[in-house]
Amino acid sequence: MAREDDVQLSRDDLLNAYKRMRLIREFEDALHEEFSAGNIPGFVHLYAGEEASGVGVCMHLDDRDAIASTHRGHGHCIAKGCDERAMMSEIYGRADGLCGGKGGSMHIADLSKGMMGANGIVGGGPPLICGAALSAKQRKTGGVAVAFVGDGASNQGTTFESYNLAKVWNLPAIFVVEDNGYAEATASAWSVSGSQAKRAAGFDIPAIEVDGHDFFAVWEAAREAIERAREGGGPTLIHCRLNRYYGHFEGDAVTYKAPGEVEKVKAEKDCLMLFRQRVTEAGLLDAEALDQADREAKARIDQCLSEAKAAPAPTEAALLTDVYTSAY
Amino acid sequence: MPKKSYRQAINEALRQEMERDERVIIMGEDIAGGMGAPGEDDAWGGPLGITKGLMTQFGRERVLDTPITESGFIGAAVGAAATGLRPVAELMFVDFMGVCFDQIFNQAAKFKYMFGGKAVTPLTIRTMYGAGFRAASQHSQCLYPLFTHIPGLKVALPSNAYEAKGLLIQAIRDDDPVMFFEHKAMYDDEWEVPDEPYAIPFGEAAVTREGDDVTIVAFGRMVNMANEAADNLAKQGVSCTVVDPRTTSPLDRDTILETAEETGRVVVVDEAHPRCNMATDVAALVGQEIFGALKAPVRMVTAPHCPVPFSPALEDLYIPNAAKIEAAVHEVMSGVHARAAE
Fold first, then answer.
1. What band does B178 get if pLDDT is binned at 50, 70 and 90?
2. For the segment A232-286, what is each residue's pLDDT rounded down to a tens digit?
3. CB distance from A97 to chain B under 8 Å?
4. B149 is catalytic
5. A200: left (phi over 0), alpha (psi -120 to 50) or beta
6. A188: closest CA of chain B, how far (Å)
7. Pairs of CB atoms within 8 A across A/B
């Protein structure tokens, strides 16, 4: 069992980590309800269950660092500091959305926060973060760049090309493979040959395998990878095994999983539950502080929802703006 | 004014912009050459020597040789452009877009719009296009219409060395992603090119010949064919205006329409395949906007709807030329409807 001296995070850091994870969970749970009620247009892919990965990694990052995300990007956005209120409006297609309602769930981005976008293309992100890492290196900002990819994207050629490029250019790049066991409806146990770590080894890239339900394991792995990158030691792959609680997309009946599969994970390995157990048993945070954080997150998301629903849609004037920087 | 080749003009534009702005970096396969190899550094300076000498001047940090990994490095150029650099990536042959198109049309082109206007992606992709090198089906295509189709991209098609330098400088200074098309058969063509840096604005056509009878709108290398045709036709008493749009995106609709209205007869010349290309685009524009001013149907001179053949005997048939343009001009002058004439 964890002892207090195992944990190198301050009380404030721990509380912030928990708050972030809880905020993501509330955000996603709320969207699940809202989508089921028919209130959200388009495609939505939820991150619930995977919070320890995004937050465990992004806790080490600041605004000079870039991340590229996936179609399952809400958690990465919140973890990297995107405004959840503007995100909610974006998902509802409102004018005051983070992207003016032009991007939606799959394209939320905030470059001022180093968030290079959720991405509708599986495997779209890894080449981009090679560029962001190259930019940080050239401009000597000390920044690093992180690509979150799923087990699905881990089979895309762009991902392999990026491993190679990051290695031969010695880039401050980190590839976080969030392996939730399923690429859409296909098991990674079947679709991924070899292993993520062996794949990295093939490129001479160090790999760390972690239980992605365990915030502390992710945090520690990310610390090592990001330190190495900042010091000029090149790329690292982190393989996070975790679970998603909802379908590939909202509306997915998830008939490909075993009966009770998700319920068992929720009961035994939920990242918020594990975090709470560890910090309370180690006396790092008390239950009341965590309960308070839970209430705050719920209230915040309720507020985001009601404001986003009341926000106006974009007008026709927005249709043709933002295509080009200059007059066209 | 000094004469320089298309190749020299492009090299000079890159050098001058790299001197002006340290955020400008260039990357591509063997753009220096010799990386990690025991022989000469800057061994190639690009497969056709376009970037020769830049590595020596700016170093490997700003002249990056890449592995053969188009998705990887084109994507990296996109990511670098979105995070503070102004990369010029060389996609050796535009035919290779098949292995990196996602990063161009789904990522670079859409960032600004998808992200609500907050992204700036000052990326230039230089790429080689066009037939005439006996390079066969996978190294000879035009493909600029495919990029022109995509909102968010700009597409430049310099028809001579003067335009190559000015349009490339504009591309590098532009805050939007630009596809810069270099015709491989023009690298040795010389033109008057000022020594000092200058930018040619996008969306402003050049009128290279002025005449009263027919307006010829031609793209890229075809501008030179159109000029040759116009000069031949002038001797036969037919005077032609030749319009070189210089960029297909944005397209200078005004100059095309104004000159077409003046002559009332239009021939469009495009080396691309005939379906959904620049010729059909211009023909549709003219038909929609100034139909009443037309004295004859618009004629299109394009490559045929087949892959680019290898055999010199076939490739010569494939590429539009001055004679084909002249024939089309005579057709519109005679007012003969093509279908009826067949």
1. very high
2. 999 999 999 999 999 999 999 999 999 999 999 999 999 999 999 999 999 999 9
3. yes
4. no
5. alpha
6. 24
7. 159
* Separation between Cα atoms, residue B123 and residue B121, nearest integer Å: 6
**B73 neighbourhood in chain A, CB within 8 Å:** 127, 130, 165
pLDDT in tens, B114-125: 999 999 999 999
Nearest CA to CA, how far is A67 from chain B (Å)?
10
Q: Which chain B residues are Cβ-neighbours of A132 within 8 angstroms? A: 79-80, 82-83
Helical H segments across B33-148, by residue range: 54-58, 70-81, 101, 111-114, 144-148
Residues of A in Cβ contact (< 8 Å) with B67 = 164-165, 168
CA distance A319 to A102: 9
Task: Assess A107–B contact: CB distance below 8 Å, yes or no.
Answer: yes
Please check whether residue A110 touches B, CB under 8 A.
yes
In tens, the pLDDT along B95-149 reads 999 999 999 999 999 999 999 999 999 999 999 999 999 999 999 999 999 999 9
Residue B199 lies in a domain: no
Task: Tell me: pLDDT of A3 over 50.
Answer: no
Q: How many CB atoms lie within 10 A of CB B57?
A: 12
**Residue type, position A70, single letter:** T
Residues B69 and B41 in one domain: yes
Pairwise CB contact (< 8 Å): B116 & A324: no
User: What is the DSSP code (8-state) at residue A85?
Assistant: H
Residue A28 has pLDDT above 80, yes or no: yes
Do B235 and B143 sit in the same domain of this protein? no
For B33-74, the pLDDT digits (tens) are 999 999 998 999 999 999 999 999 999 999 999 999 999 999
The reply to whether residue A131 touches residue B75, judged by beta carbons under 8 angstroms, is yes
CA distance B167 to B77: 20
Number of domains composing chain B = 2
Whether residue A109 and residue B61 make contact (CB cut-off 8 A), yes or no, is no
Structural domain boundaries of chain A? Answer: 4-311
Distance from CA of B85 to the nearest CA of A (A): 6
User: Are A124 and B102 a contacting pair, CB within 8 Å?
Assistant: yes
Q: Which helix (H) or strand (E) holds A21?
A: helix A11-36
Q: Is residue B119 domain-shared with residue B147, that is, in the same domain?
A: yes
**Are B265 and B184 found together in one domain?**
no
**Confidence check: pLDDT of B322 > 90:** yes
Which of chain B's residues have a Cβ under 8 Å away from the Cβ of A124?
75, 102-103, 106-107
The verdict on ipTM greater than 0.85 is: yes
CA distance B113 to chain A (A): 5
B221 and B170 inside one domain: no
pLDDT for res B336: 62
Q: What is the pLDDT of residue A328?
A: 87
In CATH terms, the superfamily for domain A4-311 is Thiamin diphosphate (ThDP)-binding fold, Pyr/PP domains (3.40.50.970)
What is the extent of the structural domain holding B182? 3-192
